[in-house]
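Troubleshooting: if your tokenizer reports a length mismatch, compare your output against this known-good record of 148 residues.
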Amino acid sequence: MARLLICLCLIATPAVAVQPDEILDDPQLEERARVISEELRCLVCRNENIDESNADLARDLRILVRERLVEGDTNEQVLDFVVDRYGEYVLLRPTLTGSNLLLWIAGPLMLLMAIATAIFYTRSRATAPETDALSEDEKRRLDELLKD
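Known-good structure output:
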């Protein structure tokens, strides 16, 4: 039973695509590289970070991050360098500035507009005036049309 539990726990862990030749000798730098890698999107796989992706571009990004750390860059400098090179799309959590702010606000704003439209529509339908009954002429004409 214990073996089964251990096997299930090992299966549930996320896959890491970092190759042994990419790992830095300094454990502190390697830990910083892993933290940075969790924030960077694989541009091929889209919703995977670069540590989980087996794509060649993700490998290049992992190597780039580690090279910048070895050169002495801070985590922020490494992220800024990668964003300058690949654009803000490379971040898994984009910033809330500039045109991204419009994208963050657009979804909830559209939802609020849809709810307001639905409320306005249902209220206008509920308060719509009742139609008048048919006049005698209209009833006679309707009967004639129905007979045909």
